[in-house]
Amino acid sequence: MKILKQKWVTLPILWVVILAIWQFAAIIYGPEVIAGPIDTMKGAAELLEDGSLLTYIGISFYRVFVGWVLGSLIAIPIGLVVGKVKVIRVFVEPVLNFVRFIPPIAFITLFLVWFGIGEQSKIALITYATLFIVIINTLTGVLAVEEDKIRAAKSMGASEWQILVHVIIPASMPYIFTGVRLAMGTSFMAIVGAEMIAANEGIGYLIWNSRLFFRTDWIFVGLISLGLMGFITDRVVEWFGRKVLYRYGVIGSKAN
Amino acid sequence: MSQAPQFDTNTIKIEQLYKSYDTPKKGEVHYIIKDVNLTIRGGEFFVLLGPSGCGKSTLLNMIAGFVSKTSGRLKVGSSEVDKPGQDRAVVFQQADSSLFSWLNVRQNVEFGLKMKKVPKAEREKVSDRYISMVGLSGHENKYPRELSGGMKQRVQLARVLANDAAILLMDEPFGALDAMTRKTMQKELSNIWRETNKTVIFVTHDIHEALLLGQRIGVMSKGPSSQITDIYDVPLSYPRDFTSVEFNDVYKKIQSHFDE
């Protein structure tokens, strides 16, 4: 059965099996509990037609993207400083390890009070969700820079600043990149929670709101959209790492 | 014209040098190296020979300015060593941990010049010269991960030569290479040293290597409290023939030192 080892054969078979199980489960439990693939597709068509699905995807994605970029831009310099300066690290590390165990979603009520019910509170939440992962990864990267590299640079006359820019940052690039990539995942988790609690738009809002109308198919559409959004963004980020940051030793983790 | 001064800028003078670390037990001091006295002339090829763990790398790191001394005097030229300096370049044992993996061969070699803001055209002239000296012409655009172990050590060598330090500190640089490559590298290092007139301090635990390269060989005793117990002059001319009777006479003499 050599033909079963071919990807173009196995992949469609796998999909057909998954869809069949899904449809089968939908028939057994009824469309109110499990919306089958056909119902879900119909629901998706509905949501696409009135434009709400693309709007919601766009809004959720916008929140994640802005918060994630902002969080990374704040976190990387902090991670570098905390990793480089021991006095600061001794003081900051316990704080980091305390705060990072508070899940972002636990902050949503507080952020609503601080930043209002508009976009700011959601973006602040994503920024928070990104912050600690990227700080800790950057910090770990800085600490993992081989002493020999720093010594070599020193004996070639590099100043502290030059060592930071030309040795420490490039050497910790794989760690920083991993942190940024992981943060994308937590950002998606955080945004859905936030949109369920306090939003009038977005995929999280769609999933939460659909329960009012008993539209299980819309919930499925929301879930699948989230999966696709995450999958595609991760691929883009991974591709960027592989192509642009290759020389820093960033390697992709694509399965094929 | 007057005679060159006895202690020119690349002379190393070490007097009663100690390096210790505190033990958990209070009041008990552990010496890594103890009472080291040594003078290395400018332009000399000096080998530090000793068993592993004897503190020869520590001594080298102290000369480099990476490790501070506990007491004693350690002078390069007329100034006391207290930090790394461009007069002392280091070739590390592990090329992978010391080369900049995100820079290609040329960029690695030009690193020091770039830090000094030497213009690009000038940098290229210098890097071309030393890349060709270590036999890496044609590999300028390769990254360290694309090079063999021997080639990586050549990059390290070119990198320190391009930075034009008077003193080269080499910490078992050929230790991780296969026997064939090591032989070639030893021969080439010897040639480069004679061509460039650098002062070289070369750390090794290999008597054969020490004899192929060094004008003088300082033998260090087993640690802790390591000392330079003997200094051997090697009166053989370069390039050295390790099959000669004279080579083997000195070899035996040094070997017997370790047999005791």
Automatic annotation (TrEMBL), chain A:
Keywords on record: Cell membrane, Membrane, Transmembrane, Transmembrane helix, Transport
Single GO biological process annotation from the record: alkanesulfonate transmembrane transport
PROSITE patterns: ABC_TM1
Keyword Oxidoreductase recorded: no
Domain ABC transmembrane type-1: 57-241
Transmembrane regions listed in the UniProt entry: 12-31, 61-83, 95-117, 123-145, 218-237
Main subcellular localisation: membrane
GO cellular component: plasma membrane
A Pfam match: BPD_transp_1
Bilayer topology term: Multi-pass membrane protein
InterPro entries in UniProt: MetI-like (IPR000515), MetI-like_sf (IPR035906)
Subcellular location: Cell membrane
Gene3D superfamilies per UniProt: MetI-like (1.10.3720.10)
PANTHER family, per database record: ABC TRANSPORTER PERMEASE PROTEIN MJ0413-RELATED (PTHR30151:SF0), ALKANE SULFONATE ABC TRANSPORTER-RELATED, MEMBRANE SUBUNIT (PTHR30151)
Family classification: Belongs to the binding-protein-dependent transport system permease family.
Protein name: NitT/TauT family transport system permease protein
TrEMBL record, chain B:
A GO MF term: ATP hydrolysis activity
Alphabetized UniProt keyword annotations: ATP-binding, Nucleotide-binding, Translocase, Transport
Keyword Flavoprotein in record: no
Provenance organism: Neobacillus niacini
Record's protein name: NitT/TauT family transport system ATP-binding protein
Domain ABC transporter residues, every copy: 12-247
